[in-house]
């Protein structure tokens, strides 16, 4: 973060500077456990925790001041009506200063794949210059400002993930940090119950390209009609990506290796270069193409982009995190979140992994609205069609998968084909898995974030002993609050 005086922070957030208060802010945090000397502690009152209760801890850890909604406490208090809104104002002031110094800002949105694409793009750009792109999903009114504030005068590229739970949300994030390059990945079913329709989701996602300046670049997925249809909504140059004929940045010759990692040729700007991804799943090809197009817009060459894509590693936790236990069982932890599209992509990745048996441990998909029952039933059919040997449906929200799998020919007892089992909770799932797993099995664990199936994956790894394929680093103490958008 760039160093700011308390007076500069107070002016940015619209707060009165306490009498005789002075000092320099060199960091910002919402978590009292991570406070360091010189930090501004932002006291946010949440549903379960009120940051104002931790002012003493923040002061003891060296915070220079606090951003609060009420006066008092052991620290100089910059009192505002809404701490989250004020955090955004502070980030906007810092971003304006950095943008004036040549910072290039790249924003990414979509119903799925945002974090994976952000991780790829961040690593690609880092090959060209200092880049800020934190692990995890920092994509909302808290996470995005914190990402902006982690940039400094040396930062050349700022990669921002932008989520939404309604129309106007992405426009608000763009007001904090106006992007120079905007990437729209797809329009799917995530939070369909809140948006009401796929067209509503497209309306919200397109706010990113509407915010671009005329000198900017909109990167649009040509393989998604709703995304391709956003081209008239921007003044910026449009670059398309995909496998479709005519896409500006295109993948050809896609194959998967024996670890389900994609190999392909990327064609862009009249050049062709091989790419060998280190992330798992064919769906990552689309993410990689979007990252490639954004990096090209930032000034990198096609050859440099292909080389950096091939070197990029998994970064954020619980997203196709593949770990082999010491006993030969492989666990695929993709439990960060789920929607119908990402579920099918995960099942396709599972099908591509070599295994004695393929086991899918799936929980419910949240916020699908009136289509929830039909989508869960369809997923059960899809799991059976993908060749899963054992489908474990976890919790009452997942029972529709059982009906769908059964209708598609899955069995409940012994025999050939997919076996389907319904269990009431995570503990029951673990009990079942401890009985049936054998060396050579590959276990996919996935559900919406609210179901917490990462606990199942973690327990499976703890019980079997860690082996090869160490999980990616990532996460944050405030991850749930910092990344809640779709």
Automatic annotation (TrEMBL):
Keyword Membrane included in the entry's annotation: no
Keyword Cell wall biogenesis/degradation: yes
Highest taxon of the lineage: Bacteria
Catalytic activity: D-alanyl-D-alanine + UDP-N-acetyl-alpha-D-muramoyl-L-alanyl-gamma-D-glutamyl-meso-2,6-diaminopimelate + ATP = UDP-N-acetyl-alpha-D-muramoyl-L-alanyl-gamma-D-glutamyl-meso-2,6-diaminopimeloyl-D-alanyl-D-alanine + ADP + phosphate + H(+)
EC numbers: 6.3.2.10
Family annotation (Gene3D superfamilies): Mur ligase, C-terminal domain, Mur-like, catalytic domain, MurE/MurF, N-terminal domain
GO BP term (any one): regulation of cell shape
Boundaries of every Mur ligase C-terminal domain copy: 319-449
Sequence ranges assigned to domain Mur ligase N-terminal catalytic in this UniProt record: 25-72
Residue numbers binding ATP: 110-116
GO molecular function, one term: ATP binding
Subcellular location as annotated: Cytoplasm
Biological function: Involved in cell wall formation. Catalyzes the final step in the synthesis of UDP-N-acetylmuramoyl-pentapeptide, the precursor of murein.
Name of this protein: UDP-N-acetylmuramoyl-tripeptide--D-alanyl-D-alanine ligase
Organism annotation: Geodermatophilus normandii
Upper lineage: Bacteria, Bacillati, Actinomycetota, Actinomycetes, Geodermatophilales
Encoding gene, per UniProt annotation: murF
